[in-house]
Design goal:
Strand 10, helix 26 and strand 11 form a beta-alpha-beta unit. The protein is built from 27 helices and 12 strands. A 6-stranded parallel β-sheet has the order 3-2-1-4-5-8, with helices on both faces. A 4-stranded mixed β-sheet has the order 9-12-10-11, sandwiched between helices. It has a two-stranded antiparallel ribbon with strand order 6-7. Among the domains are: 224 residues, no CATH class; 236 residues, no CATH class. The model has no long low-confidence stretch (mean pLDDT 83). The protein is an alpha/beta fold.
């Protein structure tokens, strides 16, 4: 059931965001991008970044990913894997052993060359998906505590070398993931690895860093040098921690960093803005690089933070579903109360209906005439006169009359009764006449079959009929006993005079006996069949009520479940946009349904083409009802005007709905925008903690990802424009279903990092204990 409900909400989210973002012509990258993920610990990042890119970039399917791994990788059509040398089992040499084996194993180097060459060719083949093809960007992603990061310059420069053969300009950016939150297992070793890697990256980013090594290997084992002239290895080096600059751990952990990487790569490779707006400063990568490089020759890093406020569409969909079911459930319980007469008519239990049923069960009256042809014993009338009726019947027929009646009357009637009850069950009648009637429905049937019901009480009616019919049966049985005790010679029959033959007198008596005795037995059978029908209906009604009770319990459980799921979803929409979701959308649903009821009738949604009156519960159980409910919401509720409001109008409407509940001052548009700006800024704190980072070293740029024509964006761009110390702009994305803000910060060095200051002692102590982290110098120069 939860799967059905979740699928409904997810589908609505997808459809709405597709509609709102249908004009989003900017969310694509203009030039090819190739990702390089280092080490086994980067698999999670690889999967998450690929998923973000595919979902958010129009040409995301043209992006390739190279994964350099040792044991663990991810198979995907866009992922090219290359295996690295295994690390030494001894932790003391684990990191440096990878580099040593890489230098010595020509087979590994050759395989690596094949992979990098293949990747560069495949990137070139994707050229038609991008507007600019002269430039390619390599995005290198690594976990700082992964031992495989020791091969960072080799892998980066080898891939860059092959791409340089196909593209005029190749840029490389580095994204380092720092995991500071540790569960206590191997934290010292992991920290020492991270510190070692940060020191290496600091060296790679110096302006005088150079590299030369024979890395290019052909199929004939001919080696060619890979060179890097004195310059930083990466255009930009981002450090992304699971801690913010305020020293707080990020709630989403590394997942937020994976999304940040996708967004940063988009920012650095986006299309040029097509229009300029006052107060909007566009992003320029080269300008950002120059701005964070304050001291010539010193390594400077960058970091970023991302906040999002999106329409809480998932919570909205679930709240609407719950509110619609609330109204539907109320209507089910408010079903018409049936008076006794109407209940009898709808269920076919009037005296006329029951007689019609009996007429189809009992034989025709001529059955008694057929019985006159039964063989008799030849006894004389004078002998019969001394007997009572029972004795005379036995003397005449020797039991054949009773056997004939049982075989030709009683047995047939019982079979026809069983057939009639199976073909015209009370359950089927209640289903069609009560449950499927839009004016009545499931609860009307439930109350009708209850022990203590208001209005018509089916069980009470049936039991009254059973008592009355049982008395009739007992009365006729008593009359039968008296009749059988009567003497033959006291019967009021004309048997003729002195000259009437004996046989004629016997035949006259036989006709009288059959009429009197078996006429009474036919009457008894009539009442017994009526009693059987009523008893069967009573049992069916009790069983139906139990079944309906189960369905009512399921409906009540569904009502509770929908409410809990909706409330949970609203609570999970923790950002500012989750405000007043339930109050606002419950009122929207009520107004929408009232409008629909006014145009289509108060019971329109009880019709089978909409939700139905609960009849689906008998077949598909709750699943069928939930499917109808979801479809009704999609077609009749979520398509209405209140659900097509602009991002701001919808937010403002919800912000103001609470005023009627708690008497607050109505939130103005300006108040709303101010609150929203503060929330966006607070949650966009950069993902790195620095120590006493002086303002003169700190360079910041901040960008909204939204529709630049959005009133809130215009408000934010002009707010404090004369006093702010940072660059502010908007990356235009038409008809966005929400607003995102990215804060960029750079200009800090390794010594500014709290992570490095707090943890370099682990690195030093591990080295003093014999652990080797540094690279072995080969024919590399730096």
């Amino acid at each position: 059931m939860r799967d059905l409900i979740g699928e409904f909400a997810t589908q609505y989210v997808t459809e709405l965001e597709r509609q709102l973002d249908s004009g989003n012509g900017q969310r694509s990258i203009q030039n090819p991008v190739l990702f390089l993920f280092l080490g086994d610990k980067s698999v999670e990042a690889l999967q998450a970044v690929q998923a973000h890119n595919e979902h958010n970039w129009q040409n995301g399917h043209g992006v390739l990913y190279v994964h350099a791994y040792q044991d663990k990788t991810w198979e995907h059509p866009q992922v090219i894997g290359c295996r690295l040398p295994q690390a030494d089992a001894d932790k003391k040499k684990m990191r440096t052993s990878i580099h040593e084996r890489f230098l010595l194993d020509e087979a590994v180097t050759m395989e690596l060359n094949k992979v990098m060459k293949l990747a560069s060719v495949r990137v070139a083949e994707m050229g038609k998906l991008f507007t600019a093809f002269q430039q390619v960007n390599i995005a290198v992603v690594a976990r700082a505590d992964d031992p495989a990061t020791i091969l960072l310059p080799e892998l980066t420069l080898l891939l860059k070398g092959y791409l340089n053969e196909l593209f005029k300009n190749v840029s490389v950016d580095l994204y380092v993931l720092l995991q500071e939150k540790n569960n206590g297992e191997a934290f010292g070793f992991s920290t020492a690895l991270s510190v070692s890697f940060l020191e290496e990256v600091t060296r790679y980013q110096r302006s005088d860093y150079s590299y030369r090594a024979n890395l290019l290997v052909t199929e004939d084992l001919v080696k060619l040098p890979v060179e890097h002239a004195p310059a930083p290895l990466f255009s930009l080096a981002y450090l992304l921690s699971d801690k913010t600059e305020h020293g707080l751990f990020i709630e989403g952990g590394m997942q937020e960093n994976y999304e940040l990487i996708s967004k940063l790569v988009l920012l650095n490779n986006k299309k040029v803005e097509s229009e300029f707006h006052e107060s909007n400063e566009g992003y320029n990568k080269l300008q950002f690089m120059r701005s964070i490089t304050v001291d010539h020759g010193q390594t400077k890093f960058a970091s970023a933070g991302l906040s999002k406020v999106k329409r809480p569409t998932h919570a909205i969909a679930l709240t609407v579903l719950s509110a619609v079911f609330d109204r539907y459930w109320e209507r089910l319980q408010d079903g018409e109360v049936l008076p006794k007469t109407k209940a009898r008519e709808k269920l076919g239990l009037t005296a006329h209906d029951l007689q019609r049923k009996l007429a189809g069960i009992l034989p025709e009256d001529h059955i008694l005439e057929e019985m006159t042809g039964l063989m008799t014993s030849g006894i004389s009338y004078s002998e019969l006169c001394s007997m009572n009726i029972r004795e005379a019947e036995l003397a005449l027929f020797d039991g054949s009359s009773q056997a004939f009646f049982e075989a030709n009357v009683v047995s047939g009637a019982r079979k026809r009764l069983e057939h009639m009850l199976s073909q015209e069950s009370l359950a089927d009648t209640i289903q069609k006449a009560i449950i499927e009637d839009e004016r009545l429905g499931l609860y009307a049937a439930y109350y009708l079959t209850a022990e203590h019901a208001n209005g018509a009480n089916l069980l009470d009616e049936l039991r009254t009929g059973i008592r009355e019919t049982s008395r009739q049966v007992e009365q006729i049985k008593a009359e039968m006993v008296d009749l059988y005790q009567e003497r033959v010679d006291r019967q009021d029959i004309r048997v003729g005079g002195f000259f009437t033959r004996d046989k004629e007198r016997v035949r006259t008596f036989i006709r009288h006996l059959l009429d009197a005795v078996y006429g009474k037995k036919l009457e008894l059978l009539d009442w017994e069949m009526m009693l059987s029908i009523l008893v069967s209906y009573e049992k069916q009604a009790e069983q139906i009520h139990r079944q309906l009770g189960e369905q009512v319990e399921q409906l009540e459980a569904l009502h509770k479940q929908l409410r809990e799921i909706a409330q949970t979803s609203v609570r999970e929409a923790t950002d500012y946009l989750g405000k007043n979701v339930d109050e606002y959308y419950e009122s929207v649903v009520h107004e929408t349904i009232r409008s629909l009821e006014a145009s289509r009738g108060s019971d329109f949604y009880m019709e089978q083409r909409y939700i139905g009156s609960g009849a689906l519960l008998s077949g598909n159980r709750l699943a069928g009802l939930v499917e109808r409910l979801c479809q009704f919401c999609r077609n009749e509720i979520l398509t209405r005007a209140p659900f097509a409001l602009s991002f701001e109008a919808e937010l403002l409407a919800r912000a103001n709905v609470g005023a009627a509940y708690d008497n607050r001052t109505v939130l103005t548009k300006g108040d709303l925008f101010l609150d929203l700006a503060m929330v966006l800024e607070e949650r966009a704190a950069v993902h790195i903690e620095v120590f006493h980072f002086l303002q003169k070293h700190r360079y910041e740029e901040k960008y909204f990802f939204a529709d630049i024509h959005n009133d809130f964006v215009q408000y934010a761009l002009h707010k404090d424009e004369n006093t702010r110390t940072y660059k502010l702009g908007c990356i235009h994305e038409e008809q966005k279903s929400g607003i995102e803000k990215m804060n960029l910060m750079g200009g800090f060095g390794m010594e500014d990092l709290m992570f490095y200051r707090n943890n370099k002692k682990y690195h030093a102590s591990y080295e003093d204990s014999g652990f080797v982290f540094r690279r072995v110098e080969g024919d590399e120069t730096s």
